[in-house]
Amino acid sequence: MKIVFASNNKNKINEIQQMLPKEIEILSLEDIKCFVDIPETATTIEGNAQLKANYITENFGYTCFADDSGLEVNPLDGAPGVHSARYAGEEKDDVKNIEKLLTDLKPFSNAKANFKTVICLNLNGQQHLFTGIVNGEIIKQPRGTQGFGYDPVFVPEGFENTFAEMTMEEKAIISHRGKAVKQLIDFLTKMQFQNS
After folding, report:
1. 31, 37, 67, 68: which one is catalytic?
2. What is the pTM of this model?
């Protein structure tokens, strides 16, 4: 079974391929000659995942899954949310995004937040959504050099280290993306088992 992951992020693609049974092969956007920057214009994280998956299914006809993630901060009414990557501007600058977030949080004592990933799978004419959420809080100073995005200021509930202070393996076990990917893999493995 071949399935398109609507991404060109090689780390993400390899990570998911490692977790899948060997009968399921992942193709990247590059593999299917899709070089379009698929617009992410929805107002929700779910909506963006659906937009990306639908674009591939409608234009290329492949079984496909796509993901979208965001940081939702309680005192900021869920911001940056769907705008997480471009919070400080179109250039998607992680350092500037963190600076803006910490500035916006200054008036608040509560910095509870969650990371959310939604994966949308288009398979056999049906759409399936898988959601992973990890709760935690935003700290006042960045710590750690691993990871990307808001990882240096996010401490997951029950832990003392930020995501950026964890190894990729440690983070994958508890992260929002890890949880959503596990649901996707369980679903695909079950489908594969039923069809074999």
Report:
1. 68
2. 0.89
